[in-house]
User: Fold FAD-binding PCMH-type domain-containing protein from Gossypium raimondii.
Amino acid sequence: MKSLQLSMLLLSLVLAALLSFSMGALPHEDFLQCLSLRSNDSSTISSVIYTRNNPSYSTVLESTIRNLRFNSTNTPKPLVIVTPSRTSHFQATIYCSRKHGLQIRTRSGGHDYEGLSYVAKVPFVVVDLVNFRSVDVDVENRVAWVQAGAILGEVYYRIAEKSRTLSFAGGVFHSIGVGGFISGGGFGLLFRKYGTGGDNVIDAQFIDVNGRILDRKSMGEDLFWAIRGGGGGSFGIVLAWKLKLVPVPATVTVFSVSRTLEQNATQLILRWQEIAHQLPDEMNPDVSMFSVNSTQDGRKTIIASFSSLFLGTIDELLPIMQQRFPELGLSRQDCSEMSWIESILYFNQLQNQPLEILLNRTFRNPVGGQYYKIKSDYVKEPISETALNGLFSRLSDEEASSAIIIFMAYGGIMDRIPEDATPFPHRAGNLYKIYYNVNWQEQDNVNSQKYIDWSRRVYNYMTPFVSKSPREAYANYRDLDIGSNNVGITSYTQASVWGRKYFKNNFDRLVQVKTKIDPENFFKHEQSIPPLH
Ligand SMILES: Cc1cc2nc3c(=O)[nH]c(=O)nc-3n(C[C@H](O)[C@H](O)[C@H](O)COP(=O)(O)OP(=O)(O)OC[C@H]3O[C@@H](n4cnc5c(N)ncnc54)[C@H](O)[C@@H]3O)c2cc1C
Ligand SMILES: *[C@@H]1O[C@H](CO)[C@@H](O)[C@H](O)[C@H]1NC(C)=O
Ligand SMILES: *[C@@H]1O[C@H](CO)[C@@H](O)[C@H](O)[C@H]1NC(C)=O
Ligand SMILES: *[C@@H]1O[C@H](CO)[C@@H](O)[C@H](O)[C@H]1NC(C)=O
Ligand SMILES: *[C@@H]1O[C@H](CO)[C@@H](O)[C@H](O)[C@H]1NC(C)=O
Ligand SMILES: *[C@@H]1O[C@H](CO)[C@@H](O)[C@H](O)[C@H]1NC(C)=O
Assistant:
């Protein structure tokens, strides 16, 4: 009896193994065969395909896993990675993935905070744009064609090579991919002066679910509107953007001033809330808060670090700050003058490094641990001292020892660009955005959970003090806690939960565009825009 049971058990194990083998392997073999048949240059496509038994598979996959939460052995991995070097490779990959029921995840710089560009719970293929990263700068016409796989550092460097008084309204961190950055809106040092990344795009090259290569003219204004902020991974694959370059002065100023609670940080933050959004467009004031052990008595305190770029000289900045924010006591010693491109190094904590470091795609996490959870909020009314104290007390929790919370001032041109100019809706009426970042050093599921729980507790705590109906969130700070679908079952009602937080009333237009360009919902992920049926 026992041995019969045992052999039945063995048999079912063998069967299960066989089944999973054939189920896993067969479509994937067919897919590879399809790729080589479909591609009219099969010799070059084979050199950009990485299956799991390719010795470079892990290196390629891990090359831009920025959040190590998604580098664990139980993170689902793609069956195949394709790193197209020609447009025909994209076309073949889209065609064959559709034919064989595989999902595509597109990856440019890999910074997605929830790893959606390289993690999926269904059989999938990663299309990585690492070989699509040329940057062509035309100083005379103040434009640049940039392939989506370029990182912001490459864009800034190539512009600076030709002109120190032009730039792009991009993000701070040099390793972010322009593909995902602009797809989700994109804000940075210049956004109060010139708007989001998406506001500064004037044409694009795009490939749709049928493999058609479209530009602004052939895609039409609706789709061109949608891809400049409606979130990556919903409509198709952006191959390149044509960026508008914007003027920056030859000399800019940066400053950073830190105060502890004992040095009146609380009063300064309360004051900052009232005035930061009214400071000149030439600034991007923010205040970062984190806890430290006091050097005096070892007890915890909070440091608030007030910092900004200023598009001008120290002599121009000081009187402005003296007049508008005298309480901060900004002095000449707190400020440094430099070129615009050097300010990028400064804010990446790469001061005194050669500019070439901006070309280096190797990631350096600017804050804390390599495992993290991010959330965002928008604030329309100044929060009270009591509310702020509650936030500080949570920042003093053990789980928050390397957490950082940043208030980033709105105002400037954001107040003057209409909410529906692009899908990015967070414009007039916002005092500032809150960025919550909890991070930690070691991977351990029990440990990770306690940090994630901390971020949820803080987010709950902040509910009464931030935007409501919807509680707005920034699409590029992806957070699956605010709602997500189990890939495949995307209902409009379900998607509108997170869709309205990210896009407010622009969500409906995004759904219309999606319904037209990808009615069968091939390009999808946990927070993608659904088509209407
Ligand atoms: C350290 C760090 C700092 C950051 N700083 C800022 C900042 O200063 N300002 C800011 O606005 N944001 C910032 N972010 C957020 C960042 O802008 C977003 O994560 C952005 O989506 C990253 O783009 P990516 O190409 O690097 O990411 P990816 O992970 O490659 O892509 C993000 C999303 O876009 C999709 N996608 C990628 N490429 C394409 C494409 N070519 N066509 C269509 N869809 C595509 C992906 O499938 C995924 O859904 C930061 C993130 C990190 C990790
Ligand atoms: C390869 O395919 C592309 C796109 O389908 C086409 O434009 C190109 O002319 C083809 N090249 C050859 C050599 O057949
Ligand atoms: C990611 O995981 C792999 C496999 O466990 C490991 O070899 C690699 O070092 C990890 N990457 C980083 C940056 O820790
Ligand atoms: C803090 O504020 C109080 C009252 O406004 C003031 O008396 C004190 O000097 C300030 N302390 C510092 C360190 O600025
Ligand atoms: C701060 O103090 C706590 C407890 O007193 C200690 O566990 C922790 O290591 C200290 N942190 C630093 C950065 O010194
Ligand atoms: C990029 O930076 C990393 C980390 O600092 C370094 O190890 C690597 O050599 C650099 N690569 C290039 C091409 O400079």
Summary: The radius of gyration is 24 Å. Residues 66, 105-113, 116-117, 129, 148, 171-173, 176-177, 179-181, 183-184, 186-188, 232-233, 237-238, 476, 525 surround flavin-adenine dinucleotide (ligand 1) (CB under 6 Å). The chain has a mean pLDDT of 92.
